[in-house]
Amino acid sequence: MKNIFASVNAIYVFPHMLRQGEKDPARRPMCPVCRKYFYDVTTLRRHMEIHDSQRQKYVCKYCMKAFCWKNHLQSHVRKVHMPKT
Ligand SMILES: [Zn+2]
Ligand SMILES: [Zn+2]
What we know:
Elements: H1 3-13, H2 15-18, H3 41-57, E1 58-59, E2 66-67, H4 70-81
Antiparallel strand pairs: 1-2
Bound molecules: zinc ion (2 copies).
One zinc ion is lined by residues 31, 33-34, 36, 47, 51.
Domain C2H2-type: 29-56, 58-85
GO molecular function, one term: sequence-specific DNA binding
Keywords: Metal-binding, Repeat, Zinc, Zinc-finger
């Protein structure tokens, strides 16, 4: 999942992306994880921290596999670790 942050850094390279409050939606910075557009790179950078903390948050207590989303972890636990009933 390191490539998420590599992509974000690549966005910063484009000077037109660094302008604050870009009015053209097509030129706004996009989150590479959830593909949402943001008003400026500051907002995007702040948003990326959400993905980072979520990544740390949902760790399987059985096999220590990490998941971005709570429902991904829940379905993993049900599928892999829960005995069939
Ligand atoms: Zn996102
Ligand atoms: Zn697991």
